UniProtKB/TrEMBL annotation, chains A, B, C:
Cofactor note: Binds 1 zinc ion per subunit.
Protein name per UniProt: Aminopeptidase-like domain-containing protein
Chain ranges of the UCP01524 winged helix-turn-helix domain: 361-436
Xref: InterPro entries: DUF2172 (IPR032610), DUF4910 (IPR032589), UCP015244 (IPR012353), UCP01524_HTH (IPR032622), WH-like_DNA-bd_sf (IPR036388)
A GO MF label: aminopeptidase activity
Organism: Bradyrhizobium erythrophlei
Residues engaged in binding Zn(2+): 192, 198, 328
Length: 439, 439, 439
C-alpha cells in the first residue's frame, strides 16, 4: 500500500503574535538609528523590556580585525530652509533626510553646490533614499526627486546639527542557556533608521523567538546578537574569537515582515547542518520558498562566512536585500509589514529550532529483524496512530534507520516524512525501550 | 562515426515456459496455506517434483530474534449456516472465507455479534478479503459484501473446525552449488492461501529459475528460500546468522505474474551490486519498468534489510503489493496470471543471473596504447563482428577500461552497451590473451 | 542586489588571423601525405617557416609498444587508362585516387577484376572516398561513383607507381619552454592527403597557437606534436614514456575549420583539469558548443587515454569525425574551411591557455572578516571597476574563497564569473598585498 505521509504538526501562526510584533515595530520605527549613537541605545532599551540584554559599549578607535571602530555619530536636527526661514526639507519629518554620518553644517549654500550633496531616487520620485557615508567624511541630505525639482531658489540655508566624535559602538547579546553549551547564533542588524522591513522586522521576530526560547528550556544554548551591520559583526567577531568553536548553527535574520515568500541563503559551506535543517523545514512547510547558494554579498553572513571563520551561518529572509523596490528607501516603511508574515517567519524559526534541538542519533536495541511491535502496543495498523503525532510508517522508518549512523533529520529526509512525525515516533520507541541514543 | 550500440542477446520469453508455470500455479492454487500448517507442507511437496528441497520443521515456541515461532494452525472446515442447516458461507467454496489463525467455534451466534467477526470489502462487494490474525487470538470469517448484505436471519450457526496447537513452522531451501561459495539469496513467501499473483506467481518463477540454474553450472552458489512471510524470514535469519556474510546479492520475489511492468525496489543500501545489476538489466530490456528506493514496508526485505543485517537484498515484482485493486482479495485469482508475464519475469531473472555470474574484473595485458587487433584477427571493421555477440566498440571499450578497476558491469554502464555484448567481447579478448582476470 | 556577472574580456577573433591560416592550409592542401613518406616531410618543412620544429625520423621495423613502425610508402603516379592510353582516373587530378599504401602495379586488368580494387561512395556519387590499407598489403584506387559507372571497357591499363620499402616514420615536435617544466601536450595528426578540415585545419591552428605562445612567455611548457595518426602517437609515446609524468593537460586537435560549433570530447578520466578548464571556457563563450564524454574511438586520444597511460588529454573539434557528410572524402576540401571558424578555434584555444596558465591558488592575508577595501582604494562601488577587467563581485568572491583550497578556476566556477574577471580581481588584490599564492 502507498502511504500519504502525514504532514506533521501544524505550527500555529497566530495572528496575535503578528499583531504584537507589528506594535513593537511601530514603537521602534521613528528612532534614528545608525552604526553608532543614541538611536541604537534607545532601541536596545525598548527590546530589554521583552528579553534580558547584555549591552556592550566599544570605544571608538578599538581595532576590529582589519577595521577600526569609528567615531560615534549623533544628529539632533537637519534641514534645508529658504532664506526666509521656511524649511523645505526637514529631518523632523523623516530621519532618512540626513545622510548617515553627515558632518555638521550651518551655512547658506548656493543651489549649484547644494545639488552635489543631495541624494534622490529619480526612478521612484516619491521616495527618499537611504544613504550612508560612514568611512568617508562629507555632508549630505536625502530627499524625494519631486522635492529636488521644487528647489528653485538660488541659495538655501542648510543646517545639520550633528556630532561625530569619539564615543562608542553599542551592541547587545541575549544568551539563553540550554542543556548543552554548544551554541546557535542568531544575528540581526540594528543600524538602520526608519526602515521597517530592513530590519525592524527581523529585530522584532528575533526578540519574540528569544522570548519563546526562554520558556522552552532548549537543548542548545542560543545566542542572539543585535549589532550594527558589518562593523558590528566584525567587532563582535574580534571580541569573541575564542568562543566561535562552540557555534553549531547560525542564522542572520533580515527582512522578515514583507509579503514575499521565505528566501534562505545557504552558508558558505553549502552543506552545513543549518542548510539541511532549513531546507527540510521549508520543504515540509506549505507555500513557496527559495533556497539560494551563498554569495559574498548581503548582510553580516559576509563576515561570519569569511574564509578565516567559515561559520555554519545562513541567512533567513523573506524578500531579500535589493529584490524589492522599496529596499533602502522611505518606501520601506510600516505599510510593508504584514502581521501574518511576521507570525509566519516566527513560526518557521520555531520549527527550525525544533529540528536543531530534536535532531538526535539513535541506535535500535533490536536491530536484527523488526522488533515485534504488536506485543508492545505499537502496532496500531498503518495510519492508526496519527493522533500521537506519527503514523506506522514513521515507526518503521525510525526502526529501520536507527543504526547509529542516521540522525532523526537524516530519517526525515530519507523517508520524506516531516521531522516532527519522525521525532514523535522516536519518542514512542524510546518509551518502549526500543531505541537508545548514540553518545 | 557514431555507433548505435547493439542491443545484446535476446533472452527468449518462450510461451511454453509461461504455460508450464501457469499449470503449476493452477495445481497449487486450491491449497489453504498459512504461516504454518499442512498447506505449506503440501505446497513444498509439489515443488519438490521440480527441484530438490531441504525442508525444515521448526517447533512452536522456538525463539526467532525478537519473535517466537507461533503455534501451528490447521483448518478442515468453516461455514456459516442458517438454522435449517443451509450453508450460506463455506470454506469449501473458497479458503479465503476463514480468517487465518481463527480459533475453533461451533455455536449459534446472533447476527449482531456475528457481524463483529465478519470481514468484507465494501468498495469491492464481489470480492472476499484476505485477513489474518496470527498474533491476536480471535475467530472470524471473510465474505463478499453482497453476501454480508444477504445475512438477514436473527441467528446463524457458525462452525470453524480448526486447530491452533503446538507443532511446527515449515520452510524449505533449494541450494544450487556454484564454483564459488559466495551466495545469491532468492526468497519468496509461501504463506498465502488461494491468492495467485501474491504469491504463487513468484513461487513458480523461482522454481523454474532454480531448475534452470541446476543445469547452468553457475559461478555463485544460489540459495532459494521458500518461507512464510515475516516469521519465516525471521526464523531463517535467526538460524543462519553465521552464513549471512556469504551473501553477495539477494532478491525477494513476489507478484511476478500479472500484466504490469517490472517494479524493482532497491535494497536499503540503495547502491548494492544487486541494485546496479537489476537497473542495468531493466535499462537494456524493452518495455517499461520502474525502480523505487527502499521503504521499510513490503515483504521479507523488511527483515533482510533491518539495520542489524542490512543485506544487499532488493525486491523484484510486477504490480507491487497494494498497487493493484485485487491485492489481498479473492480478486487475486488465477485469471490475473498471464503466461507471457510469468515467462518475461523468468527471462529477466535469467539476465540478472547472467550479470551476477559474468561480472568479472580484468586487466589488459597490453595497457599502454591499443594492442594491434588486426594481426590477431579481431579487427573486423566496426560493426563487423556482431554475429559473435559483440561489435568493435565493445572490444574497444573493454580494452580501454580493463585497468583492473572496472568490472564488466562498470564497462557496460559507462559504454551504454548491454552486459552480454561486453561479456562476449571480453571472452574474445581473453581468448586472444589480451586480458587477464584480477584475482 | 542581484548582479549580472560581467562577461569577461573579449578574445578577438580577428578575420586576418583566419585568412592567414586559410592561406597556409591552401599551400598544404595539394601535398600527398600518408603515415610515412615525403608528403609528411614536405608538410613539416612548410610549418617550420612559422615555428621551430624538431623532426624525428624513426626507422621502419622499430617497435612501438604493441606495434611496429611500418615500411615507408611513396607514390609518384597512379592512373587507370583505356587501352588507347587515355587516362580516365588520374592521381594527378586528386591524390585521393590512390588507395593509401597501395602496392605498385602496371598491367592490363579486366574490368571484373578491377572492380574488386576500386572504392566509391554510392551515396555521394560525386566524391572520391579516402581509403587506406596500411597493415594489409593490396593495391587499389578510389574514384567517384559516377566515374565507376563510366567504366565500360572490358580491360584497362592500371598503373600505380609507388614504393613500399624500409625507410622512416617522420614526426615533429615544437617545444615552447615556460617558467615551469610541467607540460601541456597539443597533438594533431598530419597523415591525411588532400583533406582540408581533417586535418589541415588543426595543423594550421596549432601552428598559429604555437607562434602566439612563443611570444607570450607562458607559465607551462607547451609541447606540440605533429604526428601520423595511431602509429605516430604510439611511436611518440613509446619514445617518451619517462616524460609523460610531466604532462598536466593535453588536447588532441582536429577538424577545427568547418562551420560547426565547438565539440569537446572529455579525457578518459572525465574530471581532469583540462575537462574543467575547457568546459569553463566554452560556458563563458558566446554560441553553442557540446561536451561529450570520452569514448575509445576517434583520434590519438585513444592512445593517450589507453589504460596504461590514462593521460589528461581531451579532444577539441568543431564537427567531429564521422559527423559531417564530407568526412573522409574529396568533399572535405578547402571549400569547407571558413576563416572565421579557424580564427574562432584559435581564440578558444588562447582562452584555454589563459586559464591553464592563470589558474593559481591563493590564500587571503586577511581571512578573518572582509578586509576594508575602502582605505585601499578598492571599493569603487559595485560595478564601478569594470574598466579594470573585473567588478566588485569578483573582488568579493576572490576574497571569500581565498582559503588556499580554491584555485581561481574553482572561484570562477562557483561564482559564475568568467575566469578573466576573477584573474583580474586577483591581480588587483595581489597588488594590494591582500593575497599570497599557495606554494
Amino acid at each position: 500500500m502507498n502511504w500519504v505521509p502525514d504532514q506533521g504538526r501544524e505550527v500555529s501562526t497566530k495572528p496575535e503574535a503578528g499583531a504584537s510584533m507589528l506594535r513593537l515595530a511601530e514603537e521602534l520605527f521613528p528612532i534614528c538609528r545608525s552604526i553608532t549613537g543614541n538611536g541604537v541605545r534607545q532601541t536596545l532599551q525598548i527590546l530589554s523590556r521583552f528579553i534580558p540584554l547584555q549591552v556592550a559599549e566599544v570605544p571608538s578607535g578599538t581595532a576590529a580585525l582589519d577595521w577600526t571602530v569609528p567615531r560615534e555619530w549623533n544628529v539632533r536636527a537637519a534641514y534645508i530652509a529658504k532664506l526666509d526661514g521656511t524649511r523645505v526639507i526637514d529631518f523632523e519629518q523623516n530621519n532618512l533626510h540626513v545622510l548617515q554620518y553627515s558632518t555638521p553644517l550651518d551655512r547658506i549654500v548656493p543651489l549649484d553646490e547644494l545639488r552635489n550633496h543631495l541624494h534622490t531616487l529619480p526612478e521612484h520620485p516619491d521616495w527618499i533614499p537611504y544613504r550612508t557615508s560612514y568611512y568617508s567624511e562629507t555632508w549630505g541630505l536625502c530627499l524625494t526627486h519631486h522635492q529636488l525639482e521644487a528647489l528653485t531658489d538660488e541659495e538655501y540655508r542648510v543646517v545639520i546639527d550633528s556630532t561625530l566624535a569619539d564615543g562608542h559602538l553599542t551592541y547587545a547579546e541575549c544568551i539563553i542557556k540550554g542543556e548543552i553549551d554548544r551554541e546557535v547564533l542568531l544575528s540581526c542588524h540594528i543600524c538602520h533608521p526608519s526602515l521597517a522591513n530592513d530590519n525592524l522586522s527581523a529585530i522584532v521576530v528575533a526578540t519574540m523567538l528569544a522570548q519563546h526560547l526562554r520558556n522552552a528550556k532548549p537543548r542548545h544554548t542560543y545566542r542572539f546578537v543585535f549589532i550594527p551591520g558589518t562593523i558590528g559583526s566584525l567587532t563582535w567577531l574580534s571580541r569573541n574569537e575564542r568562543k566561535l568553536g562552540l557555534i553549531d548553527h547560525g542564522l542572520v535574520l533580515s527582512c522578515l515582515g514583507d509579503s514575499g515568500h521565505i528566501n534562505y541563503k545557504q552558508s558558505r559551506r553549502g552543506n552545513s547542518s543549518i542548510d539541511r535543517i532549513v531546507a527540510h523545514v521549508l520543504r515540509t512547510e506549505p507555500g513557496d520558498h527559495r533556497i539560494t547558494p551563498f554569495v559574498p554579498y548581503g548582510y553580516d553572513e559576509r563576515q561570519y562566512c569569511s574564509p578565516g571563520f567559515n561559520l555554519p551561518v545562513g541567512c533567513l529572509m523573506r524578500s531579500p536585500n535589493g529584490e524589492y523596490p522599496e529596499y533602502h528607501s522611505s518606501g520601506d516603511n510600516l505599510s510593508l509589514l504584514r502581521p501574518e508574515s511576521l507570525a509566519h517567519s516566527l513560526a518557521v524559526l520555531k520549527r527550525i529550532v525544533e529540528v536543531i534541538d530534536g535532531d538526535v542519533t539513535y541506535r535500535s536495541c533490536n536491530a536484527k529483524g523488526e522488533p515485534q511491535l504488536g506485543r508492545r502496543g505499537l502496532w496500531g495498523g498503518l495510519g492508526g496512530l496519527r493522533s500521537a503525532g506519527y503514523d506506522q510508517m514513521a515507526l518503521l522508518w525510525v526502526l529501520n534507520l536507527a543504526d547509529g549512523q542516521h540522525s532523526l533529520l537524516d530519517m526525515a529526509e530519507r523517508s520524506g516524512l516531516p521531522f516532527s512525525s519522525i521525532r514523535a515516533a522516536a519518542d514512542a520507541l524510546v518509551n518502549a525501550e526500543l531505541l537508545e541514543p548514540v553518545v
